[in-house]
Design goal:
The protein is mainly β and 100 residues long. Strands 3-1-2-4-5 form a five-stranded mixed beta sheet. Helices cover 10% and strands 51% of the residues.
Length: 100
């Protein structure tokens, strides 16, 4: 709360068709409380191009599943810190796996 999510460039996206569509995303992402970034945010997000706090920008792998017939169509199911400041335990510790 009170922080801004820095969104960097998406490095890779792949997908796999199963019971829905799994998307595997490698993205540069971070969390900042820098006032310059906060001033440029939109709905809590700011592009790295408008935020000078690049030391808080790291790389993460994310997994999301789309199941269009379900009430909750989009669900995160994995988040892995690759490098940079750790985000998973503090921000994205997901309590469930939608496949089990």
């Amino acid at each position: 709360r009170g922080s801004t999510i820095i969104i960097g460039e998406v490095e890779e996206v792949s997908h796999k068709l199963v019971a829905g569509t799994n998307f595997f995303i490698t993205i540069n992402i971070g969390i900042t409380s820098d006032p310059t970034c906060k001033a440029n945010e939109v709905d809590g997000f700011v592009t790295y191009k408008k935020c000078g706090d690049l030391e808080n920008l790291g790389k993460a792998n994310m997994g999301v599943v789309w199941q269009g017939w379900m009430e909750e169509q989009w669900r995160w199911y994995t988040f892995e810190d690759v490098k940079g400041p750790p985000l998973k335990e503090k921000y994205w510790d997901l309590p469930y796996d939608p496949f089990f």
